[in-house]
Structure formats: C-alpha cells, structure tokens
Specification:
Blueprint lengths: L3 H9 L8 E5 L4 H13 L5 E6 L2 H9 L11 E6 L5 H14 L5 E4 L21 H26 L5 E5 L16 H6 L11 H24 L4 E5 L4 E3 L2 E3 L2 H10 L16 E2 H13 L4 E5 L5 E5 L22 E2 L2 E2 L7 H16 L3
GO molecular function: oxidoreductase activity
Protein name: NAD(P)-binding protein
Keywords: Oxidoreductase
Length: 360
C-alpha cells in the first residue's frame, strides 16, 4: 500500500491548467466533506466545487472554509440542495446543473444510506424504493446517466474526466438477478421486531448496493471507454460524527452470501482512518487514472482494472461471450474483487431503467 507521504506527494502534483469542475454528492459530512475540503485546498480555491446534499447549514460552513482566490478565473464554491433519496429531486438537480455547466471533471458519490446506514432501518421511500438502494445505487446511477454528457465534454477538450463512487469496492458481491429491488425481503420484514434485530431488507439493500455499484461502473465504462470510472471503498472511517464501521460487509458475507467465490479475497477494512486521511487516499485514486474501469481498496490500490476498446464506444457488455454468466468476469476478463457478470449487469441495468421510467 502507498504510504500517506507518497499519497500526499502524488496529490500535491495535481495542478491543472484550467479551473476543474468538481461535483460531490454527499459533501456535507464525512468522507465527501473531507474530499471537497482537500480538493479546495489543493487547488488553492481555483476550482468550481459543487456540494450536493441536504444540510444547507453544514454546506455553508464547509464552503466558508475554502480558500478564496482574488483572481476571477471562473472559480466558484456552491451548494445545491437535494434529497438524494428522491429520484424526482435528483432529476431536478441534474437538469439544473446541465443547464448551467459546460463540463464536469470529477463526479464523486459519497452519500450513505438512511439513518447512517442503520441495519435496523428497512423503510421504503415514497417512490417505492428500498431506502438503502435509493441512496447507495439508484441515485448514483441516475446522477451518472444524466450528468455524463458533461463529463464527456471535459474529456473531449483534454481535461480530467472521472466518475468515482465511494462505497464497498473489492468484495466481489455477486449481483443476484432475483429480487433486484429487495421487494421480497421487504415483505418478509416483521415490523414488530424492527429495532431489536437487523432488518433483512435493510441488510440486503445495504449489501446488494455494493455489487450494484460494480455493475454501475461496468455498464457506463463499457459505453464510454474514453472516460475513467472507479468504485472504491473507504474502509473504516472515524468521521466527525463518530466511527463508521462496515457492518454491512460482515452481515452480507457471513449471513446473506455464505457461498461467495473463494477467489473474492474480501479486503480487510484495516485500521480506521480519520476522515481527512481517508479523503487523501480517495483523491489519490481519483487523480491516478486516465480511462477505464477501476476497482480500488481503501488505500487507493488498484484491485483490478479493465480498459475497454475505444473502437467499441457506445456498445454494451458482451452477452454472447461464453463467460457472460460467470461472476467476477467482465467481457471475458477475470476481475478480482468484482461481483458482476455481463449477464447480471445487463439484467440490473434493464431493471433499473424500468424502475426509473416509472418515477417522475
């Protein structure tokens, strides 16, 4: 793993000749806050940083701490309010940003699930989505789909262009194509016991979102081989609000999926990071690549990677491949720590599009 000194030196070398546009969904607390703050310091404020979240008071405090350049070179620091558990709200924000921005260089997702990822919470959003999947997958998919044209524009003019989802990379959680929306698990949840035992729907939603994020980056990386897409895991993080411990990984591996492939080699979360330290490793991964799909651990190390053929731009994953059904294989290439298969990702994306088509 790279030392913190190596990571800091690598990050310090980032000095773009343009004002980067950085969108952080979930930037009002935790790792997202720390990443936004670190990128503001790294660019000495010469960046257009947009924090998307619910807490306007926290956002104002964070933005006020950013360096404020005296030169008028296009820098801006702003907050856009959004209930990211609502796909209707996400669509409104995407339309707003698409109308105002010409490019996005870094699109970063760090927002967690409901009630600080509580395993006791098994609610369904007003739009009918499992509350964990809404935050951990659906909103990330919708933001990516709607804002990707702006990321493409950044790449076309020779700038950085990277989509990063910070969640649970490297665990190789298979995408189970039955009950993709966790509806069966939701129906089995016994409300009388909620608050006493972990909710099956909450645990399944929390864990399934990990594999779904593998599918998310695989899908969009196949369609846009010129861009960089990363799924990364932060490990255990000591946030300002307390310790965030990945209990979902434990429940997912020990209780829900006891037959995970042995080659998954589930990564150990390691020593807890302070959120500022964790952010440095996340940024190290953010700045380290030019194009392709990357699965990274909490130190920014590449667990596995795949660069798609640019001649096959705007094509989907290869469902005709003999390995299309095999977990942990992407376009015929074995991927350590990757939980998708071409067939399961295709099923996930088809389901996702059907669900989002019903929400306005």
């Amino acid at each position: 793993m790279p030392s913190l000194a190596v990571v800091e030196a690598s990050n310090a070398a980032f000095s773009p000749g343009y004002v980067p546009v950085i969108v952080v969904v979930g930037g009002t607390s935790g790792v997202g806050q720390a990443m936004a703050e670190a990128l503001a310091r790294q660019t000495k404020g010469h960046a257009h940083i947009i924090i998307v979240g619910r807490n306007a008071t926290a956002a104002e405090r964070i933005l006020a701490s950013f360096p404020k350049p005296t030169e008028s070179d296009g820098w801006a620091h702003e907050f856009v309010q959004c209930d990211a558990s609502s796909m209707a709200s996400v669509r409104v924000v995407c339309a707003y940003l698409s109308a105002r921005l010409k490019t996005i260089n870094f699109l970063i997702f760090t927002a967690g699930g409901p009630a600080a990822n509580s395993l006791m919470e098994s609610s369904v959003t007003p739009e009918g989505l499992n509350s964990h999947l809404a935050m951990r997958y659906f909103m990330r998919y919708l933001f990516t789909k709607e804002l990707l044209p702006l990321v493409v524009c950044a790449k076309e003019i020779g700038q950085h262009a990277h989509v990063m989802t910070v969640l649970g990379a490297g665990f190789g959680m298979p995408i189970r194509t039955t009950d993709l929306g966790i509806h069966e698990a939701q129906s089995r949840s016994i409300k009388l016991l909620q608050g006493i035992f972990p909710s099956a729907a909450a645990v399944k939603g929390l864990v399934a979102g990990v594999g779904y994020n593998d599918g998310l980056v695989a899908h969009f990386a196949a369609l846009h081989p010129e861009l960089a897409f990363t799924h990364i895991q932060p490990g255990q993080v000591l946030t300002e609000g307390g310790s965030s411990i990945p209990l979902g990984w434990f429940f997912g591996t020990a209780l829900l999926d006891p037959q995970l492939p042995q080659e998954s080699n589930l990564p150990h979360p390691g020593t807890p990071f302070k959120q500022d330290e964790c952010a440095k490793y996340m940024i190290y991964g953010l700045l380290d690549v030019e194009r392709g799909l990357f699965i990274r651990d909490n130190y920014g190390n590449i667990i596995s990677a795949h660069v798609f053929n640019p001649d096959l731009k705007n094509t989907s994953l290869d469902l005709a491949s003999p390995t299309a059904q095999k977990f942990g294989v992407l376009n015929g290439v074995p991927m350590k720590g990757y939980g998708g298969s071409d067939a399961s990702v295709a099923a996930l994306i088809e389901y996702t599009e059907q669900v989002l088509a019903t929400i306005h």
